[in-house]
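Hi all, long-time lurker, first post. I run a small reading group and we've been trying to get comfortable going from sequence to structure in the token notation. Rather than ask abstract questions, I figured I'd post a concrete chain and ask someone more experienced to write out its structure so we can walk through it together at our next meeting. Sequence below, copied exactly:
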Amino acid sequence: MKKTNHFLSILVVIVFFTAAIASSDEKATEKKVAKAEAEKPAIAITAAALSKAYHDNEVGADQQYKDAVLIVTGTVQSISKDFTDKIYVILEGDDRDFSIADIQCYFSDDHVNAASSLKKGQRVTVKGLGDGLVMNVILRGCSLVP
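-- Answer (accepted) --
Happy to help. Here is the structure in token form:
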């Protein structure tokens, strides 16, 4: 019984931690994306390659991709909202059995129409600011790239 309570406590902490991260202002992050892109060219990468980079070496991947503008191409796995109503799209990462498998792209409310037009299985390209690893690889301030 103690192990179950401990597990539930950890799960609750993870959920609240994820919510706190997800609740950051995505509109403000979109401005950071534009500023960062003006300072340094965006990095084009596939969702599978980004996932693999974090699986192979999280520290090295953070040095290369965190706080960088990323243009990520991948297949839509889901289109959802978290419990704070933040819009996100999950791109399928590396299809191997990694504990880190997917790319979670957070969009501002300005992109509701773009997100609502997506379909599972659709191949898309998303631009956003790399925000490291929290269960999934996180991108913030995302927009679809035509």
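A couple of things your group might point at:
The CA atoms of residues 28 and 141 lie 8 Å apart.
Helices lie at 2-22, 26-39, 47-56, 58-65, 112-116.
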